[in-house]
Each structure stands twice: as C-alpha cells, then as structure tokens.
Amino acid sequence: MALRSVVSRKTLAPALRHYRSLTTFTLPDLPYDYGALEPAISGEIMRLHHQKHHQTYVTNYNKALEQLDAAVSKGDAKGVVQLQSALKFNGGGHVNHSIFWQNLKPVSEGGGEPPHGALGWAIDKDFGSLEALVKKINSEGAALQGSGWVWLALDKEQKILKVETTPNQDPLVTKGVSLVPLLGVDVWEHAYYLQYKNVRPDYLANIWNVINWKYASEVYEKESA
Amino acid sequence: MQPATACASSGLTIPWLRRCSSLRVKCSTSQRAHCASTSTADTAEPIEPIEPIDPIETDPEPDPEPFKLKPLPYPFNALEPHMSKETVEYHWERHHRGHVDSLNAIIQGTEFAEMELENMVLTSYNEGNPLPFFVHASQVWNHDFFWETMKPGGGGNPSGVLKYLIERDFGSLDELAKEIQNAALTQFGSGWVWLAYKAHRLGVGNDINPRPSKKDKRLVVVKTPNAVSPLVWDYYPLLAIDVWEHAYYMDYENRRGDYVSVFLDKLISWDVVSYRLKNAMFRASKREKMEKREMLLDKMKEATLRVKVRPTPKARPKMKRRQY
Fold first, then answer.
1. DSSP H/E element including B136
2. Which residues of chain B does A56 touch, with a Cβ-Cβ cutoff of 8 Å?
3. Partners of residue A186 on adjacent β-strands
4. What's the CA gap between B271 and B64, in Å, rounded?
5. Where is the Manganese/iron superoxide dismutase N-terminal domain (chain B) (predicted)?
6. What percent of chain A has pLDDT over 90?
7. Residue among A147, A194, A197 whose CB faces B189 most closely
8. DSSP assignment, residue B112?
9. Which residue in B189, B249, B253 is closest to A167 by CB distance?
C-alpha cells in the first residue's frame, strides 16, 4: 500500500506540475429565432452572422488559446507575443458578439421600447434626449471607416455615459479600463451588407426598432450601484 | 473655300473677302486701303467698341469633377461565375463611385484638384497622419488598380521575369498563393492584400540602400488596413486583392479564403502584373541611377569645399652666413 502510493506520487508529480486546465469557449445560443428581428435585420444575415462569423471567432479563439497555453508552458516569449493580435481579434469578436446578441430583441418581446428608470434619466442628463443619443450613435457609426463597433458605454469612474467607437474587433475596454458596454452596434459590413448593401445609415436607423433597452438598463443599474 | 463676298463699302465682289462690312480687319492691308479710299465713314457701320477684359473674370470656374470615375475594362457580368455581376456592379457603382464623388466634393477648388491621383494619395497620407480625404483618394486609386488586375478568363501561370522572381523570392507559385492566403486571413478587418516590388532592402521609405546587391529588389506580399496602399511605403504595387467584405460577401459570404483562392486561380491577369513589374523595375533602376548621381555630385561639392589653399610661405629672417 505504502509502496503503491510512493510509486503513484512519483509518477503523478511530473504530470501534475505541467497540467493546466484550459477553459475553452462555445458559441452561445441566440435567445430568439433568426427571423425574429425582421424587417430591421433579415434572418439570413442573423443566421450567417451567428453560425458563421461568431462561430469562426470562437473556434479561432480556442485555437489561439491552446497555442498560447503551449507557448506559456514552454516559456516561448516570442510565441506568446506573436499570438496577441489573433487573441485580441478573435477573443474580441467573441466578447463583442456575445454582448450584441443580448442587445437585440424582437419587437414582439419588447425590442425598441425606450429606456425608463435610471438609464433613461442618465441619457437625458448626459445627451439631452434619447433622440440626441440615437443621432450621435448613428453619425459616429456612419463615419467609422472600415470595420468596427459603436458603443453606448458607462464610465464607471466618472459616472457618465459616453458614445465610443472601436476599430475591427477591439473590445470596449481598449478605449478605457473603466468603460462598461451597455449597447454595442456592429458596423462591420457583414452585419448589414446583404440587406442594406452599402447604405450603412439605413441599417443604423432601422436597428433601433429591435434594440433591447431592458438589458442595457440592467447592466447600467448593476454597474452604477 | 470661302464664297465670294461683296465689300459692303465699295460693292465690289472680291473673292478673298470674307466679311468686310464692318470688320475691316478681315481684309488684307491692300484691300483695307482700297476700302478706305472708296468708302465713307458715314455709310460704314460703326465698329462696336470691345469691352476691356477683366483678367480675373476670365478664370474658368473650378471643375466640379476634377476626377472622373474610370470605366471598367470589361462589362459587369464578364467575371461570372467567379465574381457575380451584382457584386461588380454594386462595388463599382456604389463604393467606387461613392469615393470618387466624396473626393471631388472635398478637393474641388483646392490646390489638390490639380494633382495627379498618385501624388494626392502620397500627400494626403501625410506620413501616417492622414488628411480627411486620404481614404477617398486612396480607395479610388486602389479600386482602379484592382479592376485592372482582373480580367475575364484570367488565371493561369505567370511567365518571364515575373515567374523567375516569384520562384526566387517565394519558391513557387503555390508558395506565393499560400502567403497571399495567409495575409488575407490575418488582415483582421477591412483592407487589401498586395504583391509588391520592393526596390530597397531596408523597409523604410526614402532610405538609400547602403549595400546594394542583386537580391535587394524583391517581391513581397503585404497586407494593408482599410484604405492604405503600399505606395506610402515606397513599394511598387503589382497586384491588389480587395478584402473588404463588400468585395466578396454576396458571392462567398464569410469565406474570404475561398474568394482569394478563386481570385488567384480564375480572375487574375498575370499579363498586367508582368507589365507592372517591368515598369517597376525600370523606374526603380532609373531612380537608383539618379540617386547615385546625386550622391556623387554631393560628394564632389563637399570635396571642393574642403580643398585648402596652400598658404604663402611665412617670411623668415635670412640666416646669417657664417663669416669664415
């Protein structure tokens, strides 16, 4: 009995030293059907966006994480640094899109209803009115060159709402560590091209019909408490 | 031949006369003398005084369209089935034209309107701090380049100098295709993938290569974000693949890799790429000669400045001769 434990400890010890569990990610399910956001966003776009784009980000992020794990274990500093752009892109894509699916809701379930309560007052205080906020987000989104995101953010430190843009798949924290995303609008071409072609302003105007202000309010109340 | 006309003053039919009634200047000197002697000032129609021309008013109005949208070298459906008619039409008609219109709107009436497009791209890039119309100027240039890189029935293999350089710098055409694929898939976001001719060994613009060798003039695959092109790094672009999503989304959805491999297999015009390479090599060698010449002239100038004038010998007191 004692011998067996000695043997097992000896053989296990090296394995235990290098064993590290890697948390991988999976594609989250949408809380509604692909076609539920019509006519603001077509079912085809939703399907491709979720099943192809987001899935690719998740797959590549997991791959990059595995490579990172291997590089860290080996002490390969150059490898670790080289992986950073893939991690930022794919990880950011996963983070951003996970928030995005929560930001949308079918009209039948309350999508598009203006915010009430604390968030509504904060919007009036910081932007004047909901219309002014929508106009600002739309203009920043239309002016964004290339691909990126437009965010309604809460600055936890300054306790103020802000509108920010991030390029490509950079998550909001890259613009400020104290920024919390309340609403994100994807202005990559894949988010609207099949339906709106190059007319991004139309997409931005119509998406407000399916924006889930309730989720934004919940996050706001939780983070500003 | 002008029909014979009658001189209004004298009534004579003079074949060489065109219109002499009031504009006597149309006649030659001798005829003018003839008219003057036979006519009276009263019957001649008075010459209307010419108003003095205000030099400022005759400046032409600024052209509202300094740049025109270049037509495609082939019809919209010529690249089917690899690039659909819809894609080509929307891409050219909406995106490319949109950039041309935006560019015209911004530069109209400014000094940039006189510039060549390539110069405008380089100037507006402003060494990394781009001016507001850089994106439009650069996208117009990029798209013109892109359309010409493709042709109906394209694909095949490169030949001649291009083939030699591809094999020297990448190993084989397949290796090149693999590198281009990798660049396209790691261009995170919108942008372009290029094959370019890099004349200098150093990767910095405006440098003079301190140790030139034959291998310096290389082919490289580069990827650029959004509207940037390798012109700003002083490279000579040879081919361009648009990897903005609007270029392939309707045909390939999210499969950018498939789009790029079909581009290289079925759409690319290697003739155009070869032509651009020869052009680039010629311009690069011409520039190198000019730079060498300038360096030599600078050295000579420096040398002349350094030449010292031999001083006159110092006056020395004469040595006394020993008295023997």
1. helix B134-149
2. 254
3. A149
4. 36
5. 67-150
6. 88
7. A147
8. G
9. B189
So what's the ipTM on this one? 0.86
| Burial readout B36-54 (b: 16 or more C-beta within 10 A, e: otherwise) | eeebeeeebeeeeeeeeee
Q: Are B186 and A197 inside 8 Å of each other by CB?
A: no
Q: Determine the average pLDDT of the residues in A67-86.
A: 95
**Alpha-helix runs per DSSP H in chain A:** 2-18, 43-48, 55-74, 77-82, 84-103, 117-127, 130-143, 193-196, 200-207, 213-223
pLDDT of residue B5: 54
Do A155 and A172 meet the contact criterion of CB atoms below 8 Å apart? Answer: no
Interface of A with B (CB under 8 A): 48, 52-53, 56, 85-86, 89, 145-148, 167-169, 188-190, 193-194, 197-198
Is the CB of residue B240 less than 8 Å from the CB of residue B126? no
Can you tell me the mean pLDDT for A161-165? 97
Question: Residues of A comprising the binding site?
Answer: 49, 97, 186, 190
Q: How far apart are CA A200 and CA A188, in angstroms?
A: 9
What residues of A form the annotated binding site for Mn(2+)? 49, 97, 186, 190
Residue A61, both tokens? 């992020």
* CB-CB under 8 Å, A52 with B191: no
**How many other β-carbons are positioned within 10 Å of the β-carbon of residue B167?**
14
Put the strands of the sheet holding A179-186 in their side by side order: A160-167, A148-155, A179-186
Contact B227, B138 (CB under 8 A): yes
* Mean pLDDT for back-to-back runs of 10 residues, chain B (324 residues): 52 50 45 49 62 61 80 94 95 96 91 89 91 94 97 94 93 95 95 91 54 74 94 93 96 95 96 96 91 90 81 77 76
Q: For residue B238, give every residue at least 6 positions away whose Cβ sits within 8 Å of its Cβ, in sequence order, or none.
A: B194, B195, B196, B197, B219, B273, B276, B277, B280
B198 strand-pairing partners: B218
pLDDT at A7: 45
| Model confidence pLDDT, tens digit, residues A14-41 | 444 445 678 899 999 999 999 999 999 9
Mention every residue, 6+ apart, whose C-beta is less than 8 A from residue A80: A68, A71, A72
Cβ-contact B5, B20 below 8 angstroms? yes
pLDDT the model gives residue B233: 87
pLDDT at B59: 57
Please state, in angstroms and rounded to a whole number, the distance separating the CA atoms of residues B170 and B178: 10
- Residue A29 identity (one-letter amino acid): D
Query: Which residue, chain included where needed, has tokens 């950073």?
Result: A84
Asked if B101 reaches chain A (Cβ–Cβ under 8 Å), the answer is no
Question: Tens digits of per-residue pLDDT, A99-127?
Answer: 999 999 999 999 999 999 999 999 999 99
What are the structure tokens assigned to B146, written together? 């892109």
Q: How far is CA A93 from CA A79, A168, A179, A208, in A?
A: 21, 9, 17, 22
- The verdict on a CB contact (< 8 Å) between B254 and A168 is no
